[in-house]
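Hi Prof. W.,

I finally got the Conserved protein prediction working! I wasn't sure whether to trim anything, so I left the full sequence exactly as given:
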Amino acid sequence: MQVIPVIDIRNGVAVRAVAGDRKNYAPLTTPLAATSDPLDVARGLMTLHPFEAIYVADLDAIERRGNNRTSIAAIAKAIAPARLWLDAGFTGALEVGAWRSLENVDPVFGSETLQESDDLRADKHAILSLDFSTRSFLGDPRLYDDESFWPDRLIVMTLSRVGAKQGPDVSRFYDVAARAGSRQVCAAGGARGLDDLLVLKEAGAAGALVATALHEGRLTPANLDVLAGR
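And this is what came out:
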């Protein structure tokens, strides 16, 4: 099972995400880095474990208030050959073009912002994030209801559980995974530590997006080795 660390960036600073309440995200304090500079955080994460990918959310781009492109490009170069999964509020494939020069960047199309759903099937690197609030799906309902729109990799993202230490929404994950066929499905939101990740692994998760548990030391290098099958 792959563990994918998450870095949320706002105004050039890595922030701590809690329950999807973006306006109140505070700068990240972590023992893995001396500062909340996103590049420092990425380097600190890679010293914890040789992660195969890091997920980066550009909150300014998602909210259409600018972007953190320079900082994210530096992270991509620093962690290579590991992949950088990038959610920058892409509405369609044209907006991904600026990132094509970085070979290790995979675009994450969040259902919350995606407008051109046909683009998913045309991009072999595309990752679709099916975004949920506490009770409802965020985005065009067809993206959730019609599996023909789904690319080879999916994320089941429960925003209300991000950083909230409530545990993952396993039933919602099951619902998507049961319809996903051979696609790789990752879970995001709520994982508190090794036990939660083992539950997701048993449920068939190819991976899980994690932040708080890493920064609070509730996922140790030994735990990560177990999940990676080392």
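The mean pLDDT is 91. Does that look reasonable to you?

Thanks,
D.
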